[in-house]
Design goal:
The chain is an all-alpha fold. The chain has 17 helices and no strands. It holds the Pfam family Vinculin.
Length: 467
């Protein structure tokens, strides 16, 4: 079906992005180190200029590739991309400073300027890599690292830093969680990776195989170490993978094969028709959003955007979706009142804005309650950041609506237009904050404490094309 194909496309895109993150950030220090070494080559060395140009080109290519990968990761989230823009802008500055330092090696100012840019560039690249690791699914990341090790062993020999990358991601997940069982499981798997013979800092087995490639015993030991390492990395992937608990199996102890069938129920008697089946889950407020709003209805467009976001989820056993839908309907009603549709009055406008502010407080309360039980620190922080803006914007909406209500009898004036513009901007910010809160709440729901009393069911409603 179309739905299945869309999910397959989503998975393939995610796997492609994860693969780029694994491969492009596997070694971020070598391009900068090689360029720095080329800058410090003494004058008069043969091929000094060509070596500098080659290393500068390699650094530029690495920066471009890393920025493209980071931009793909940023495109899937709501955060900005300031750090990758910083990497792109620092690269030509670093190359220029390196050329000046190479041409004037005795200049202390040129050397200090070059060293400062090297430190800034290194910090920015490390920050970009950390942000990409945070935005990437840890289980998929480790799984892709396993695949590269199995399919491209020579590449992994040349880039043994990938093992440290897996351990780094595992440590990030351990530090980010407050679930003691999860932390213990991840730490044990990481210790197992570090204890494998191939991760031995002396590298005795790898060195023995590299020195004498014809020695079958050394090669056999190296293969054993490699298999042990792959198995240990697989344990790390299993440790960081979050799988929902399966429901307990039904009690079948009282069932017997020789039991007689239950008696047949009596036939329906009389002319009483069978009860009507329950209607499909629909929302009465859908009538307001049957048609897409026009460009001259900015408040209705903001409400329609929130409604489109939350209507994909079932309202059953999900108070956050119920409150968000209520806010979308109230904002649509506010749009009608501001435009003077349906015989609006000052009292109606102020009352509607007050109801929106109360609904926004309810969304914030539910989101904070969910955040308190979330064991993932990043998800909890993100949820709190987006939901704590809502009450402030809701209070501003009440004030701006009161100002707009005083202008209902004086439409077309400069003061009325200014009040309308401020109200429109506030409504758009409020609807966007609620949308981000719903998304953050849905993500945080998978990391709820097992003993928490919160039970939010995130069930996608059946798309229209599957009816």
């Amino acid at each position: 079906t179309l739905s299945q194909k869309l999910y397959e496309l989503k998975d393939r895109i995610q796997n492609a992005v994860v693969s780029r993150v694994v491969e492009d950030f596997i070694d971020i220090s070598s391009p900068l180190k090689h360029f720095t070494d080329a800058v410090h080559v003494p004058q008069g060395t043969p091929g000094r200029e060509q070596n500098f140009n080659d290393r500068a080109l390699q650094l530029q290519q690495f920066s471009t590739r890393a920025a493209k990968t980071a931009r793909m990761v940023a495109a899937g989230g709501s955060s900005g991309n300031k750090k990758l823009a910083e990497v792109e802008s620092l690269t030509p500055q670093l190359v220029s400073a390196g050329r000046i330092r190479m041409n004037y090696p005795e200049s202390k100012a040129a050397d200090e300027h070059f060293q400062n840019l090297v430190a800034q560039y290194s910090d920015s690249v490390q920050h970009v890599r950390a942000l990409c690791d945070e935005a990437t699914n840890s289980s998929d990341f480790i799984k892709m690292s396993e695949s590269i090790r199995k399919n491209q062993p020579q590449k992994m020999v040349d880039n043994t830093a990938s093992i440290a990358r897996v351990l780094m991601v595992a440590k990030q997940e351990s530090d980010n969680s407050e679930d003691p069982q999860f932390i213990s499981r991840v730490n044990q798997a990481s210790d197992q990776v570090q204890s494998t013979p191939k991760c031995d800092p002396n590298g005795a087995r790898c060195k023995g195989c590299a020195i004498n490639t014809q020695d079958p015993i050394a090669a056999s030991r190296w293969r054993e170490s490699n298999r042990a390492l792959l198995a240990a990395v697989g344990e790390v992937r299993h440790a960081v993978t979050v799988t929902p608990d399966l429901p307990p199996p039904p009690d079948m102890s009282n069932l017997h094969i020789n039991d007689y069938a239950p008696p047949r129920p009596p036939l329906p008697g009389g002319e009483v028709p069978p009860p009507r089946p329950p209607p499909p889950e629909t929302d009465d407020e859908d009538d307001m959003f049957l048609h897409a709003p026009l460009p001259n209805q900015p408040i209705m467009m903001a409400a329609h955007g929130l409604h489109q976001e939350v209507r994909q989820w079932s309202s059953k056993d999900n108070d956050i979706i119920v409150a968000a839908k209520k806010m979308a309907v109230l904002m649509g009603r506010l749009s009608q009142l501001v435009r003077g549709e349906g015989g609006s009055s000052k009292r109606d406008l102020i009352s509607c804005a007050k109801s929106i502010a109360e609904a926004s407080e309810e969304v914030t309360r539910l989101a904070k309650e969910l955040a308190r039980e979330c064991t993932d620190k990043r998800m909890r922080t993100n949820l709190l950041q987006v939901c704590e803006r809502i009450p402030t914007i809701g209070t501003q909406l009440k004030i701006l609506s009161t100002v707009k209500a005083t202008m209902l009898g004086a439409q077309g004036t400069e003061e009325d237009q200014e009040a309308t513009d401020m109200l429109v901007g506030n409504a758009q910010n409020l609807m966007q904050s609620v949308k981000e809160t719903v998304r953050a709440a849905e993500s945080a729901s998978i990391k709820i404490r097992t003993d928490a009393g919160i039970r939010l069911r995130w069930v996608r409603r059946q798309p229209w094309y599957q009816y």
